């Protein structure tokens, strides 16, 4: 799974590599500053040497500016890498979804696919940015700070080891419980998006039947379920702060108590003890940042799984190894065809259809809503594959054709009109992208639509959208 997602980094590898490098340089500068502070106190202030104060003070200023520069560069490259990663991921998902058959789309649902391409990708983008920057910073700062503490005083450093162990155990318990709730959250997101999609696409029906109150209550219920789950998840994560504060103040008290004894015994200098207080805060802030990273990764793990499901989904309909690229004629044959939307359930929408239509022949199929008329037509252009039997066009099984060839020759006029954002000419050219404006106008005249289009503000160049 990780390998598949790393492929989406693509042309942003340079930014992805530079981010942790600049972050590491920033951390090194920050961690060395308390050590220089100890030198100012011990070798400058306590010794009454003003030259040492100025020398080490100047060094500290230079290190602070270097840290600022490295931090800026790390942030810039992290933003470029994360947004580029998300762009590639969305584009790859969209391209893959275009290859899906109707049965693949039915499996995920339109609302589910929208959630995965928006909310889920945003969660993964944020997690990716945290991993290449923030997730690099805390472990590095934690490691270097602990090493510096052991260099100063091995005895006092055992306080940090105990604190780290206690906090790590608490974080693991919190994250395990939160993860279970987050897995449920995204299924509720799908329900919320489905409610919005239905309401917007059928707004005329809602208003015509005065069902606004019903739709409002349905959406309110979906939003309420989502809110309850987030409150539950955030309530679990809220234990993060108290656990952190308990360990922080416990370390400060322990370091103050035992450190004072070491100063009195002259086994540690005042400057070194001061720098250890700085390292204590660095260590515990690193742990706090790690906990934030864990929260984000926990939230994104559910999103990663949902996106991965889309990326590895194999389209049910594929071109054969050696596809036929020519359709001989317009004859259509249904040879004992049966079809079920869910294979294996036994609930066939079409049952043993045996029908033969000659090229040039016109037939009409009548039946009530739900009798399978649209399904029958969908099998001809291979939007679905027959469960049993075979559908032939031009004397060949539709599975033998390249799908582009078949669908280019089988013209389908859908029951519901769909317009795409763009000009009227853009929509007219869907059947033939290379059609000239004169050809489009001629087609509209034949369809008696030219008079209506001429009344538009910009004629055939009028911008339109769905609805």
Structure description:
- With 467 residues, the chain is mostly helical.
- It folds into 3 domains: 2-312, Up-down Bundle (ABC transporter transmembrane region fold), CATH 1.20.1560; 332-409, Rossmann fold (3-Layer(aba) Sandwich); 422-464, no CATH class.
- Helix content is 68%, strand content 6%.
- The protein has 16 helices and 6 strands.
- The chain has helices at 2-6, 13-45, 50-98, 102-108, 110-134, 137-152, 154-201, 203-208, 212-237, 240-264, 270-312, 373-380, 403-409, 424-428, 437-446, 450-454, and strands spanning 332-339, 350-357, 388-393, 396-397, 422-423, 463-464.
- The strands form 2 sheets. It has a 4-stranded antiparallel β-sheet with strand order 2-1-3-4, covered by helices on one side. Strands 5-6 form a two-stranded antiparallel sheet.
- Strand 3 and strand 4 (396-397) form a beta hairpin.
């Amino acid at each position: 799974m990780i390998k598949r997602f790393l492929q989406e980094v693509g042309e942003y590898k340079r930014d992805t590599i530079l981010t942790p490098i600049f972050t590491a340089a920033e951390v090194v500068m920050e961690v060395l500053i308390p050590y220089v502070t100890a030198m100012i106190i011990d070798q400058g202030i306590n010794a009454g040497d003003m030259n040492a104060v100025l020398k080490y003070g100047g060094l500290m200023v230079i290190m602070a500016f270097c840290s600022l520069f490295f931090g800026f560069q790390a942030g810039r490259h992290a933003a470029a890498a994360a947004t580029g990663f998300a762009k590639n991921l969305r584009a790859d998902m969209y391209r893959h979804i275009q290859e899906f058959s109707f049965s693949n789309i039915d499996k995920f649902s339109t609302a589910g696919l929208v959630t995965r391409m928006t909310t889920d990708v945003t969660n993964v983008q944020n997690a990716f940015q945290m991993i290449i920057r923030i997730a690099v910073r805390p472990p590095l700062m934690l490691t270097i700070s602990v090493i510096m503490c052991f260099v100063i005083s091995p005895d006092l450093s055992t306080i940090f080891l105990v604190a780290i162990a206690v906090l790590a155990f608490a974080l693991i318990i919190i994250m395990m419980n939160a993860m279970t709730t987050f897995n449920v959250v995204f299924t509720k997101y799908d329900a919320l998006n489905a409610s919005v999609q239905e309401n917007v696409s059928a707004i005329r029906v809602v208003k015509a039947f005065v069902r606004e109150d019903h739709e409002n209550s349905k959406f309110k219920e979906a939003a309420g379920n989502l809110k309850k789950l987030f409150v539950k998840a955030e309530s679990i994560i809220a234990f993060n702060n108290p656990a952190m504060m308990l360990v922080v103040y416990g370390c400060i008290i322990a370091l103050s108590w035992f450190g004072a004894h070491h100063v009195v015994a002259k086994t540690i200098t005042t400057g070194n003890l001061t720098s250890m207080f700085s390292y204590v805060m660095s260590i515990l802030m690193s742990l706090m940042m790690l906990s934030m990273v864990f929260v984000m990764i926990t939230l994104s793990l559910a999103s990663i799984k949902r996106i991965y499901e889309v990326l590895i989904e194999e389209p049910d309909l594929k071109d054969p190894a050696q596809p036929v690229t020519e359709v001989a004629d317009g004859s259509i044959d249904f040879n004992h065809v049966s079809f079920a939307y869910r294979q294996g359930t036994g609930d066939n929408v079409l049952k043993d259809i045996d029908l033969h239509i000659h090229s040039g022949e016109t037939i009409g199929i009548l039946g009530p809503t739900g009798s399978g008329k649209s399904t029958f037509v969908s099998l001809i252009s291979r939007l679905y594959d027959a469960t049993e039997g075979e559908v032939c066009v031009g004397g060949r099984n539709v599975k033998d054709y390249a799908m582009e060839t078949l669908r280019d020759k089988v013209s389908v006029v859908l029951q519901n009109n769909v317009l795409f954002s763009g000009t009227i000419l853009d929509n007219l050219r869907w059947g033939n992208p290379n059609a000239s404006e004169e050809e489009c106008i001629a087609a509209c005249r034949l369809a008696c639509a030219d008079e209506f289009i001429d009344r538009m503000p910009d004629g055939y160049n009028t911008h339109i959208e769905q609805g």
